[in-house]
Amino acid sequence: MNRRTIEVPGVFNFRDIGGYPTRDGRQTRWQCLYRSGDLHRISGAGMEQLENDIGLKTVVDLRWPGDLARSGTLGLLEDSDITRRHIPFGNAERLTGVPDLPVGLAYLPLVERSGGDAVRIVKAIVSDGGLPAVVHCSAGKDRTGLVIALLLALLGVDDETIIADYSLTAEHMLDWIAFLIERGELPPTPNDEPHPADAIAPEAILAMLAAVRSTHGSIESYFRDHGLSAQDVGRTKHTLLE
Fold first, then answer.
1. Is position 7 within any domain?
2. Considering the domain boundaries, does residue 23 fall inside one?
3. Stated pTM of the model
């Protein structure tokens, strides 16, 4: 049975991106590509689920070095046979003069400087023996949200569906915020109100996609301009669509 949200013990926001229709009449494959919050707290039961039930082959970790320093390793995944690829998407920690922008406003500059990372991520996902794969950052919201939005757009999924997928993260944010407060990374907020840093900004995803199309001509051209060949694009669609 295909399920959008999958409960993996110790993990927030683990979702299948299968079943989304494309403009050419196909759909994204179920049980092929997943998106998630970070995986370092995964339990033994969660690992058994990833390895045996899902059959996960590849983890693409988008977190920046500062995230890794706070969270440590990928926990039980470190001792598994699952391939781990660390591709810090648009890592602002390696740059100078990058403004600290609110969620949403940061999306466009992040994508603009991350074309090479986006190409590396796509290649890691569709490499031989790379699937099923999961893409994750910390909450599975911003960096993961941008990567999945760009990838779904490349596959031909319409913007309304992309926004609906991105917005599903809102259902998981209270648990994520509670975890960060418990760990001391966020101050408590009155009446369990969401922290501003964890806002959901679907309008910013739409603005990002529109800006990329305006600058590059299309989402495919964005990937092509950063090194994804026509053959790579064809392989990506063949692999991730049915």
1. no
2. yes
3. 0.92
